[in-house]
């Protein structure tokens, strides 16, 4: 059983290592594009596609975070909600 546990650990470690290396390579490939016009692209998405903008923000938050909307936001129109981000 010790051998299979060691093998499982090795496979898991290798998969995590590969995942980390892939993530590093992906970010390295995006960096030049982001440095060129990343800020403008973010602003454009925020203005033109606020739903996608919020999805990106949510994807960057820790998974266990508890987000809830305040009752004061429930009756706002889409334009009023957008104005809060401008």
Order of helices and strands: HHH
Strand runs, count: 0
Strand composition percent: under 5%
The parts where pLDDT drops under 50 for at least 5 residues are none
Helix percentage range? over 70%
Mean pLDDT: 79
Number of structurally distinct domains: 1
Euclidean distance between termini CA atoms: 59 Å
The shape is flat
Q: Count the helices. How many?
A: 3
Keywords:
single chain, 0% strand, mainly alpha, 86 residues, 3 helices
Give the SSE map:
Elements: H1 2-48, H2 50-60, H3 78-83
Helix pairs in contact: 1-2
Describe the structure.
The protein is mostly helical and 86 residues long. It has one domain. 74% of the residues lie in helices and 0% in strands. It has 3 helices and no strands. It has helices at 2-48, 50-60, 78-83. It is flat, with a radius of gyration of 20 Å. The N and C termini lie far apart (59 Å). The mean pLDDT is 79.
In short:
The protein is built from 3 helices and no strands. By secondary structure, the chain is an all-alpha fold.
């Amino acid at each position: 059983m010790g051998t299979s546990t060691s093998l499982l650990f090795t496979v898991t470690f290798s998969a995590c290592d590969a995942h980390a290396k892939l993530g590093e390579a992906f970010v390295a490939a995006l960096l030049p594009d982001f440095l060129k016009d990343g800020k403008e692209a973010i602003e454009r998405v925020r203005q033109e596609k606020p739903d996608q903008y919020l999805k990106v923000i949510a994807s960057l938050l820790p998974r266990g975070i508890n987000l809830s909307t305040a009752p004061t936001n429930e009756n706002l129109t889409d334009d009023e909600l957008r104005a809060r981000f401008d």
